Amino acid sequence: MSVFPSFEPYFTLPSQREALARRLAPRSAPVSCDELRRILTLFDDVRGRGDDAVLAATREHDRVELTRVAVSPRDVADDVAALPGDLRAAIETALGNIHEVNARLVPADTDDMLRPGTRVGERYRPLDSVAVYVPTRKGPLISTALMLIGAARAAGVPRIAMVAPPLASGRWEPQTFAAGMIAGASDFYVGNGVALIAALCQGTPSVTRVDGIVGPGPGGIAAAMGIAACLGSRTVVGLGPTDCAILADESAQPKNIALDLMAEAEHGPDSSALLVTPSAALVARVQSELTRLLAGVPSARRAVLEHVFGVDGFGALVVAPWDEAVALIDRFAPEHLMLVGPAAEAQASRIRNAGELLLGASAPFAAANYAIGVSAVLPTNGFARSHSAVTARDFMRLCTTARLDAGALASLAPSVIALATAEGLPCHAASIAQRAPSYQ
């Protein structure tokens, strides 16, 4: 008997488009106005009471009693020393690949002759300091720490802080913090996530203010990042519960597809996992593999998977012709997208909205999540329609440059003076006339 007694095996498009839309929406609950007001109040509290407000928020919301938020680097160094050898080697391999990819993404300065006498360009410089939030409440998130801190280091950020919620014991997740130190973090904090974001963008006696804050999390964390941006911190929005899609043709291996869907779905009950294919036969075989494979998953993760693919989850198997399939992918705008099989890979140029595009059966989600080196910190919940993966570029700032010779300035003078006069800004006009003899 199926482990998914309430799960429809698949949806057929276009006839069941509305039914599929109801299943997939909302992919995550929005932040309510009441919750946003509470977060704003907490920001004010942190501004006024500093560390005491962070500790109080941790006690109230995380149900953990802390005496301090700063973690000694010496204690994290002990966590590094305690890493098993094979895990340390895996961390070093993944980090090397992450740095290699991100180093290639760092933009070069430019200085080009645009018109005679006019040079324009761009200068890129790293932020002076950033913080990386890693939501380790449910367990280690080594990969997130490596992805974000590795990207910041590749960008050249000199000071990187790592932030995480506490474990029930009041300590921090040791393997994730150890990975953060190996990757290049030098400051470490533990406490309520929203309160620490408030502290990082304003500063407290124990928490040094940073110029940028990045990291995934639920709605409250996303809202806190938005408020931090209003206070001058560089942030990235749209990093919430994971979602994935696989676009496959009939040549795809059903067991591999089932395992790839399960790999993303096991992140949590709010994960989304979507298979889209023109082949009804492939869907039937994948459904059979899901049923069979789930029996062997440890009970805690099996419960998560049963929810995702159950009646109240965001898992779906969809049969659709190629045009309809591509349109669905673009509406869904997945965080992770795999194209499996020659006919599916041929659709790559038609797809506009995806956080990452993994081409071929040998580039599964798990490889990208850990060790290829491409970013696995990606826009979720449809944000891929307007946002991109977090890379070294997100830890840099751009300064435009311009140089004019006297002749180039003289050629612009009539336009500048006319526009300044129209806007009622006589000093603008005078500053140009002073330099252009024909206007004196």
Q: Quick recap of the structure?
A:
With 440 residues, this protein is an alpha/beta fold. Helix content is 45%, strand content 17%. It has helices at residues 17-24, 33-49, 51-62, 73-81, 85-105, 142-155, 174-183, 193-202, 219-230, 254-265, 280-294, 299-308, 322-332, 342-345, 365-370, 406-422, 426-433; strands at 11-12, 70-71, 110-115, 118-126, 129-133, 159-164, 187-190, 212-214, 234-235, 243-248, 272-277, 314-319, 336-340, 356-359, 396-404.
Could you give the count of β-strands? Answer: 15
For the sheet with most strands, the description reads: 6 strands, parallel
List low-confidence stretches. Answer: none
CATH architecture term of the largest domain: 3-Layer(aba) Sandwich
β-sheet strand percentage:
15-25%
Strand order of the biggest β-sheet:
1-12-11-10-13-14
Give me the CATH fold name of the largest domain. Rossmann fold
How would you sum up the global shape? globular
Alpha carbon gap, first and last residue: 91 Å
Radius of gyration: 25 Å
Mean pLDDT, nearest integer? 93
Q: Helicity, in percent?
A: 40-55%
